[in-house]
Amino acid sequence: MDYSQFLAMKQEIALLGVFLLVFLYDLFMPKNSQRGLSGFTIAIFAIFTVSCFCPVFISGHEVAFGGMYVTNPVMLTIKNILNVGMLIVLIQASRWANSEMQVIRRGEFYSLMLVTLFGMYLMISARHFLLFVIGLECASLPLAAMVAFEKNHYESHEAAIKYILTAVFSSAIFMLGLSFVYGLAGSLYFDSVYFALTGADATDPMLIVALAFVMAGVGFKLSLVPFHLWTADVYQGAPTSVTSYLSVISKGSAAFAFMVILTQVFGCVYSQVWEWMLYALIILTITVGNLFALRQHNMKRFLAFSSISQAGYIMLGIIGCNAMGMASLMFYILVYIFSNLAAFGVIQAIENQTGKVDMTDYRGLYKSNPHLSVVMMLAMFSLAGIPPFAGFFSKFFIFTGALSGTESTALYVLVLIALINTIISLFYYLLVVKAMFLSSDEPVIAPFRSACSERVGMWITVAGILALGLVSCFYNQILILCQTWGLPSLA
Amino acid sequence: MTPINPTIPLLILALPLTMFLVLGLLGPKMSHKAAGWLGVCGMGTVLILSYFTAFTYFFSGNEAFTDGVNRLQYIVFNQDWLQFYDKLVIRIGFLLDPISAMMLVVIPTISFCVHLYSMGYMEGERGFQRYYAFLQLFSFSMLGLVVATNIFQMYIFWELVGASSFLLIGFYYQRHSAVSASKKAFIVTRFADLGFLIGILVLSYYTGTFNFTELTSAATANGSYAISETTAFSAFSSFGGATFMGCSLFSWALVLIFMGGMGKSAMMPLHIWLPDAMEGPTPVSALIHAATMVVAGVYLVARLFPLFLLDDFSALTFVTVVGAITAFYAAVVACTQVDIKRVLAFSTISQIAFMMVALGVARPDIHHGMGYMASMFHLFTHAMFKALLFLGAGALIHAVHSNDYTAMGGLRKYMPITHITFLIGCLAIAGIPPFSGFFSKDEILTAAYENSFFWGAWMSMVAALTAFYMFRLYYMIFWWNEPDYSAHHHKPHDAPWVMTAPLVFLAAVSCVAGFIPFGHLVTWNGAPYTIHLDWSVAIPSVIIAVCAIALATFMYKKENPLPDRVAKATGKLWTAAYNRFYWDEIYLFITHKIIFNCICRPIAWFDRHIIDGTMDGFAWVAQRLSIAIRPLQSGNVQYYVWVYISGALLLGVVTAFFMI
Fold this sequence. Notes:
The complex is a heterodimer.
Chain A: H1 10-28, H2 37-51, E1 62-64, E2 69-71, H3 73-97, H4 106-125, H5 129-147, H6 154-185, H7 190-197, H8 205-222, H9 230-237, H10 240-265, H11 270-293, H12 299-319, H13 323-354, H14 365-368, H15 370-384, H16 390-403, H17 409-437, H18 452-470, H19 473-485
Antiparallel strand pairs in A: 1-2
Helix pairs in contact in A: 1-2, 1-4, 2-3, 3-4, 3-10, 3-13, 3-18, 4-5, 4-10, 5-6, 5-10, 6-7, 6-8, 6-9, 8-10, 9-10, 9-12, 10-12, 10-13, 11-12, 11-17, 12-13, 12-16, 13-15, 13-16, 13-18, 13-19, 15-17, 16-18
Chain B: H1 7-26, H2 32-59, E1 74-83, E2 89-96, H3 98-121, H4 128-146, H5 151-169, H6 176-207, H7 212-216, E3 217-219, E4 225-227, H8 229-237, E5 243-244, E6 247-248, H9 249-264, H10 273-276, H11 282-291, H12 296-303, H13 305-308, H14 314-334, H15 340-361, H16 370-400, H17 416-430, H18 436-451, H19 453-478, H20 497-512, H21 518-521, H22 535-556, H23 562-570, H24 572-578, H25 583-628, H26 637-659
Antiparallel strand pairs in B: 1-2, 3-4, 5-6
């Protein structure tokens, strides 16, 4: 075996290094320096994130392990995007992780989180279903433990059980789908399946069922409707840091992996089969997510449904099946990371201070905590897609991506439905803003000063929301990358 | 080696923007003095940087700026901002060419004077920091406008100057008149900008580009650009002779773009906002509504001048006619107003119209497009002396607390510095040598006579009216019997040095600016041109100006019944001119009676019943649906799994069903 192949996996290996350092620190450092664990993790993860932008990591198209593993600058970029999100999550989580309650299990929290990120890396880079499943499980199972982290909260346990049961079930369905794929193609390599399916009968029921099951399996991670029912309960029950992690990082990686599978494996049956399946899923996801979000009062549950409908928008980047859609999907994930984490940052700060997570508690927040309110407002505006904040441009580009190079009326109808849903979503995002700014009631939450780490997190996210909206070079860079390195079947 | 360090131009834009943010966000926490001096220092730095840039451009002789004979256009930087697809890109950049370099001198100079002056004028006002923040925003927008490399960037900054003008006119937001004036200014100019936008879209649709350098000039060997009639002609031919309503679409595009200019530069019939805009603080009027923003329309035409030359000059003829009518109209109205700021406002309209006419009569084959040079020259000199007059008027208003000339009189004894500087301004605008206005106006008149005798004579008449109304104003302020000043706390006196220093400086500039060899600096295609005074035009126009001043002296030197008798004798004409020929009333009639009733009402009905109804329907359906699907989220995990598997199967079955 040629061990130099491992050099293709520089990012993964570096991440494992980070994981090992954190793990060793947790195990062997004396008790009195354990409090430094969060700071240590943040510091080395920050170094890792920054160094991933260094030329050492940048390479051309590299294939390793007989074609199971592939990397190229596009994948490097999406991994970098996830890293940035992860870093913000770590910063935001540090106050919670340092609280008395979590003190003995802090190390596990960080270790598990880093392992899931490793799994996501594998999902993105895998070109063989076996490796993909390993990545998927690696990214799913530790999350169940993280969801259960609030030892004293009954909801946390309930959420974890629900999560693990549905996750296991969806894995089973996914595997079943894979076995059909294997039956059809005789291989689990992405490109072999692709060649086997080229020219195959698209009306083959086995192919259709296989596709439906694969979509269900990945749709679970993305919480696409109707595979989403676990989302709200889990988001609500889980510790807020885990919720924010689930809603952005986990979702972002799954979205990219989903695109890879649909285009790389099933690209040849795009217009006959999965375009319409995805079409239905998108409409359902956006609409149902929105309709549920309308009536939520718990902020975490509310953001759970909002994130379901956002996932529908992300899927719009796939349905166009072109390089522009791919770029807009990546940009959307980046923007979504900043916007959603800004919202979660505020929720977390308030929850840590007062334990309140209800929308009614946010009434008159502007009077007592103007800074938090402004951050929340920016987050809501960005999520709703109001210019000039980043969310407007990500929505704009994703619509452009879905429609570019198509004459299909159906896609125009789809974008129209998405636009109508944007209006509905505006309603509930503005409900939060209204509660904070326009309510004449006396504020429920007394003025307080949030912790340093929380403020750093908010500054980063706000800077991201503004910069991604006003500065154009990010999207252009991604677009250029996607056009040069885009997936082979997209060319 | 790069001809100029790109950091400097970048700073020229970035500094005012930063100042705006700093003053806007942190201003309320600063003291008035700190905020004010911060603003002044910021603008002072911009002034130095801009002077450096402009002087480097004009005098360094770098081969990027000049090919030895002609001046070239040089793009310092040009950053993609929003890319729709490879052709449709919006860029933000910095273009250096003779006119933008000239504006880099004008804008910071006036802006700096106004910043300094406002330290005294706005002292103790509520919202002082906000005022300075807005001034910085305006300076940023105006600088961004003049250095635009493409027409879309120009449009963006065009709207930004409109917005900052709106904010500054409505600065005294508790005053009802200020609020309505700001709204009026915004709506009228926005309406004009609609034409501008359509014009941009038509032009770019056919030519496939927003960039000025691709519309009007050709690249030279070393990366700069030279104005090229061939490029302009190929832009013209890309229209392929398309027509709309009997006129060529090319002319339509230019006229629509010019409509934006008409709005900003207050040309008839879109002039109605400018007199009302005088509700803003007087230094703002000096900066925005006299020297810089209102000449944006002239600048726009100058920018696209090579295009205007095509299609048998039809667009240029339109410019000339609009300019000539406006110039005359505004001059007549200015003769009758009593509010000194309004006199100056109408005088501004009339003078801008002068510049428009100069552009309109310019032809490349007549003295190398002398009208273009004259127009830019007048833009430069006018900015200086009109800012001087406005700042002088501000000093007067500051002293007597009224805009009305009846509250003034005999002020020459009390405010000697203001008096002298104001007199210099009046002499400059009247066109008396050796003050700057004489030279630039003379060039305009020469260009007009060269084009046709009619336009020359017409503009000479307007020039006579100009001299007349300015001296009418001058005598009424400084020579008439003084009203009872004892009602005030103190006698009127000259303002503090921060206010008089800009006056003295601008007066000095107005004395010498005429001797600048402008033809060597700014011409339509960059080719140098030596100005020769055409004595056959200059001598008669001086005589006309002197006669007009003499008439004004005769009528207004002392308070006497003669003006009243003249007003009575001319009867209706005087009343009409006093009421600005009822333009506002005409607009009110058209909007209230015709547009509101015939168009707005049905639309409002449609909006209320159909659109709102649909939206309410959506909301109702959404609400119902969301209640209906509530049981889906039961919290029961068995049920979740059941939905999951049936969803997956259904997805497969339905797809299969549709395919087979």
